[in-house]
Structures
1.
Amino acid sequence: MTKSNLSLDGLLFQATKIDLTDNILTITLNRPKKKNALNNVMMNEICYALAYAKQERSIRVVVIAAEGDIFCAGADLRRENSDSNVPKLEGADDISIALRHLYKPVVCKIQGSVLAGALLMVTNSTHAIAVEEAKFSAPEILRGLWPHMVMAGLFRVMPKRAGLDFVMRGQSIDSKKAEDWGLINKFVKASELNSVVDDLAKELASLAPGTMQFGLEAYEKQDAMAFNEALPFLQKQIAKTFEGPDAKEGIAAFLEKRKPNWDE
């Protein structure tokens, strides 16, 4: 199945829960008895939901949450029977790429510890808010393995020496260190997590959606460029932004001393 004219109608999401409210799509990892480990069903459902979010103009923000005590324990290599009928999309089986190419705000709502491959979601989202009790680890080296795929996102948010120590020793870090090292935006009390993430998601959803998407796409593209290539590319993007409907509405609203209407 290709990534066009996607729908949620009639789909049975087995490993995740999907909710769409007020321009915010929430994907909730829903295998708490398995520590929300990423099996093939869950990964396919996440990638499908992200593709749907990219398709739908009305969806302005994505939140990734989880049930249970663990946010996600990484990959689950065991095969299980599934009732999920969520289609598999061609070329849409990599969560990191799906997140980075969504070009919309994605908030990881981290209610518990994050291990191994779960870092793919945290490092490639635009925002990550965690409870102070959460622990973060890349324990692969302790099993004779290495977090190869995780590194692509990890070293784009963490300082290199901190990130190297993190993956080389496989030891967990607490939320304070995760915040200090840029792995998360901030940590909060467990009782505050819902309100903090809700407020952040609503704020992001209230901002110019077309410009947000265009700007995040420019950010992702310039991130792979040399500095001397990035500057002329970004200069062109500035001109295109001014020509867009969001900029015209935002400037008009400012001059007319009113709130902008992004829905028109």
2.
Amino acid sequence: MARNNKKLTENDFVIFNVVYEDGTLSSNRKVPLTEIDGLADTAGAKAVIEAQDRDIAEKSGRPRGRVKSLERVKAKKK
């Protein structure tokens, strides 16, 4: 088995699908890996996504609902 010794960069992301309390779905939301504590850190990812939503709502004038759940999207094999 080959090991991937790739070092993390600022361009590494974890991708999540987000379900909001009103039932809407936002697919493939990118969270920088440097902003969370490991791949399984959904609480940290939720905080980052909520901050992104606040920024988007401020710019667009259309607020998002509250995040109900997050699901990490599995990486595609090349």
